[in-house]
Amino acid sequence: MSGPNTDYDPVEVTPLKADQVEAMREAALAAIAAAADLDALKQVRLDHAGDRSPLALANREIGALPPQARKEAGQRVGQARGAVNRAIAARQTVLEAEHEERMLAEETVDVSLPTTRRRRGGRHPLTLQSELIADLFVAMGYEIAEGPVVEAEWLNFDALNLGPDHPARTMQDTFWTEPAEDHVVLRTQTSPVQARTMLTRTPPIYVVCPGRVFRTDEYDATHSPMFHQVEGLVVDKGITMAHLKGTLDHFASQLFGDDITTRFRPSYFPFTEPSAEVDVKCFVCRNIEPQSCRTCRGEGWIEWGGCGVVNPRVLVACGVDPEVYSGFAFGMGIDRSFMFRHDLEDLRPLFEGDVRFSSAFGTEI
Amino acid sequence: MKAPLSWILDLVDVPAGTTTEEITDRLTLTGLKLEAIVSPGREITGPLVIGRVLTMEPEPQKNGKTINWCTVDVGAELNAAHGTGEQSGGVGIVCGAHNFAPGDLVVTVLPGGVLPGGFEIGARKTYGHLSAGMICSARELGLGEDHDGIIVLPPDAGEPGQDVRPVLGLDEETIEFEVNPDRAYALSLRGIAREVLVSVEGASGFRDPTLRDTPAANDEGHPVVVEDAEGCPVFVARRVDGFDPAAATPDFMVQRITAAGMRPISLAVDVTNYVMLETGRPIHGYDADTLQGAIVVRRAREGEKLTTLDGTARTLDPGDLVVTDDSGIIGLGGVMGGETTEISGTTTSILVESAHWDAVSMYRTGRRHKITSEAGKRNERGVDPTICEAAADRVVELLVEHGGGTAHPGVTVVGTPPAMPVVEVAGDLAARVSGMPITEEQSVECLRAVGCDVSGSGTLSVTPPPWRPDLTDAQDFSEEVVRLVGYDKVPSVLPTPPSGRGLTRSQQLRRRVGRTLAGEGYVEVVSFPFVGEADLDALGLAADDPRRDLLRLSNPLNTEAGFMTSTLLPGILRAAGKNVGHGTTDVAIFETGTVTLPRHAGPAAILPVDRRPTDAELEALDAALPAQPLHLAVVAAGDAVAGGWWGEARPVSWSDAVDAVRSVADALGLEVTASAVELAPWHPGRCAELSVAGEVVGHAGEVHPTVCQAFGLPKRTVAAEVDLDLLIARAVHLRTAPTFSSYPVAKEDVALVVDASVPAADVETALREGAGELLESIRLFDVYTGDQVGEGKKSLAYALRFRAADRTLKEGEAAAARDAAVARAAERTGAVQRA
């Protein structure tokens, strides 16, 4: 590089002439604007902002100018270079955005493709129905009592005022076990849990006991040797049939819908006196023009279960003083409740284990 | 109990215009539930009239049959409506029967009529004539099986064209009731009429068929000795001689007996059944000429035999009450008569037995000999003991009236009806029991209405009527009051329970287990717990497998499944197989249920009921029951992860079964360790024994291919069964909140070569111990077998993460811990670090 040339006329240095610098700037900006993609812009950067670009070369010449000319030339070139760099940066941002947009567009998938790789599980509708019923009563302050399904004859029958020669024993076709002298049965009802509860708790007692029970019924559309019942037992001071009615009305409305009430008919169970059959108002036709109702078969009411005031004999056998306490008990079929709540006419799918059936109910009902 | 309405109304009056439904609605509300109202003619619609046969011309047909081409007069109006002009004075009908003649009155259904079974009648061309209707047989009208010929009506039945329904009793309604065991009295028209009296508003004029003047007992009757007065408190015998065995049962009696669901047999038998239905008192008739000497009632002796009326030879029990004469045993008292003294087609002298029997003995005998009879049904539930004489007298009356004999003057009456107990009933009991404001006066009124004798006030002294042996306790009388006041009037009041404690921990955890498995993709199933030895054979259980110790059912529905199961596997494998059979080839199911494990701990005592059993007695009772732990089983077959656009399917693996249990254990805050074991029904090399804190809780793995085949499942089906009670008992209740180190983690990977037989779990345990407390986690990320590690070896690659709670680890600290871990693994398992 040559030394300072004091005689040098800056006007004579062509690259630093104002119109020359302006031309370089315009050329650079035009190239930047024309850069179609990031690769093109990279080349533009080299050509117009790189070390060997006209403006960079022009910048070098500044040092050769006489001091009085340097400032003006320096400003002119500096501004031009600044404008070019800003334009490149701006173009870079635009092109990067365009690039990303294009890349994302290329990654488009078919969101309607199937997504299920794993099987969906489900719980058995009778489990769900039992839990739903349990929850209704827990909400009222009841607790859930339990007992074994292979049960002592005494608890299944005798303690419940069904002595060995009680004709009602033949009402419940019992599975007996061997040896017969062991006096062990498959419980025919959840009522032995009543007895167990009274034998192990002190009143006030408010419990329900959902569970499996067994009868020697041939398996068909409406009978099963195994089915599910929920037993309710309340023992407290001053308990009456009115409390039983109130409780079952509440139960019915919770399970089947608002305003679904119950109807009592006199019946007979050895463990209750008075005893009643409970019908629940048909929740489909609501007993309004029931003639054409399929659910209640024109009755307006559906047989739901049995209930009554706990027989004082049962209280005595279970260690509760009938002079102080009274109680009520009820028993409903869970399977039966499920069947008419969910419009199931044949109960067998409940026990066939076909996953298509249980899956339909998911994990809540 | 089926009761013809006309018979009920013979005994009690209801206000004019009361409908059958009004009667049955009231009876249902007071305790006699309506089952059905039936009438034989309910399926018949359209013109069914009396016709008079004017002409009949036999016309032989090519098919060998001869038909009768008849002219039937069905009244001017119907003749005009249905006559075709082919015949004059009536309608033309082709009839295949021959048991009638011109002039006879017959039952004619005309076009537009519909007979039972939806059989529509039209005018149709047949055998070359236009037949305008049909002459009916009894079977065509649903009146029985008689199809030998058409019905020929008596000459005085009515005029042609008149509706024939009333003549045939087709409009007679029969009400079927469900009778509860405590209302044995309603197994009679007498009892039902009494219920109508107390239930139906405005009912009156009850005519008790047992209220009749009966001849006094005398010494001229058949000699009877009752040796067991407790078993047979009353025995009445009467006799009818000169009876015509060919006498027919009158139509009304046949109709009523049939409507009540019994079969007419012969006049003598029908009369005893008729009186039983009317009064509720079972009656037995003997052919008096076959009796030898005095009748003696006693208990049977060991080994005695009797062939009963049904032809069954029975060996008697000392508990059975028997009727004997000099020839030996002639009947099973109150249950069924014997063959030798049975009334036959030649019987002309009948001895009528009307006896009261002990209900418990009746029940036991019926059950012992598996006899269910109309008589037994009543005797075992309890019959009014005071009506023996009246019922016998009624039988004698009807036999004489319809069978043409004479009543023998002898009247034998042995014993007296037991007195009814007097029960003290608090005057306000009905109010206290029902929650209704029932006054003492109302209670007394209701009790008297049902036949009780009531005296006193405050505490009432109540004597039930003799037909109500079920009324023994004070509370029984409250039901009588409440049902008459009306169950529909019981108010609805919610009691206020004390604060409850919600679900027990165990109940919550069982729900959690179910939700966890459902979340893992398993569907819950419910199977019957019945199992047979063949099922256990199919599982491949060894002869001495403890799961072969089963509780046997005395009366299984299916002898192939005569036991309570000790394992959930047969049921759930069967369910899985069914799913696969239905085409659901990728299936994952679970089941929770109790299994039955006999303890052989002796009898569960029949404890007294007049007091609470002692705690020791209750404990012994529970100890005598089999153990019934709650088990969980899972089965999976087919693909665990489906194949698709994302890639290949992943078939289920033995590890899925283990992992199902692990997911449950996780949900309970438990850690499960697995170790190899051989156990049926699993694959001998692919079965894990699962333990929690050193206690075995169950097993999981791949099901043995033979077992898969037996249950219709594909090979590589996997299964697990665990004792859920054990898991739940060990579940962590309160988990401690974790703390995390915020210092950086140091990662070290190691690959160790061990013998193929060394369990990975052992290597991991050694690594953990050797690594010390700086080890944060360890993960086996690769298992390699092959040339690079050599025959009989495997390489296990672990990723170890180290971190200190209170500082950044120094250079080399993590490496030193890793080296210590490897050293421990080498020492314990012979592991060699791979270069």
Concise account of the structure shown:
The complex is a heterodimer of chains A (365) and B (835). Chain A is 39% helix and 18% strand.
Secondary structure elements and their pairing?
The complex is a heterodimer of chains A (365) and B (835).
Chain A: H1 18-34, H2 38-49, H3 54-61, H4 67-106, H5 125-140, E1 143-144, E2 150-152, H6 153-156, E3 184-186, H7 191-200, E4 205-214, E5 226-236, H8 241-256, E6 262-269, E7 272-281, E8 301-310, H9 312-317, E9 326-333, H10 334-341, H11 355-359
Parallel strand pairs in A: 1-4
Antiparallel strand pairs in A: 2-3, 4-5, 5-9, 6-7, 7-8, 8-9
Chain B: E1 2-4, H1 5-11, H2 20-30, E2 33-38, E3 48-60, E4 66-73, H3 76-82, E5 91-95, E6 105-109, E7 114-115, E8 119-120, E9 124-126, E10 129-131, E11 134-135, E12 152-153, H4 165-168, E13 174-178, H5 189-199, E14 224-226, E15 234-241, H6 251-259, H7 267-279, E16 284-287, E17 295-299, E18 305-307, E19 313-315, E20 321-325, E21 328-332, E22 336-337, E23 350-356, H8 359-368, H9 374-381, H10 388-403, E24 406-407, E25 412-414, E26 423-426, H11 429-434, H12 440-449, E27 453-455, E28 459-463, H13 474-485, H14 505-519, E29 523-524, E30 530-531, H15 533-539, E31 551-552, E32 563-564, H16 569-581, E33 587-594, H17 615-624, E34 630-637, E35 639-641, E36 650-651, H18 654-667, E37 673-676, E38 682-692, E39 695-703, H19 705-710, E40 718-723, H20 724-730, E41 746-755, H21 760-771, E42 775-784, E43 793-802, H22 813-829, E44 832-833
Rg for CA atoms of chain B: 41 Å
CATH architecture of the largest domain in chain B: 2-Layer Sandwich
**Number of contiguous helices of chain B:** 22
* Number of DSSP E strands of chain A: 9
Query: What would the CATH topology of the largest domain in chain B be?
Result: BirA Bifunctional Protein, domain 2
CATH architecture call of the largest domain in chain A: 2-Layer Sandwich
The major β-sheet of chain A equals: 7 strands, mixed
SSE ordering of chain A: HHHHHEEHEHEEHEEEHEHH
Low-confidence stretches of chain B: none
Quaternary state reads heterodimer
> How is the main sheet of chain B built?
7 strands, mixed
Number of individual domains of chain A: 2
Strand order of the largest sheet of chain A: 1-4-5-9-8-7-6
